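Researcher: Here's the sequence for the chain we discussed earlier.
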Amino acid sequence: MFGLHASLSLSDDTLKKVSENLNGAPIHIHIAESLEDEEESIKNYGKE
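Model: Thanks. This is the structure I predict for it:
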């Protein structure tokens, strides 16, 4: 398993690079840990 930081601190480019180099290994990302996480998700992706 490969651990990353909070979702709001990760760019799409970072996620793509990690995904491309882990050969299907699981990825751990902290999500919904604060109000800021939810606000960022709504702002960037229109999702809660």
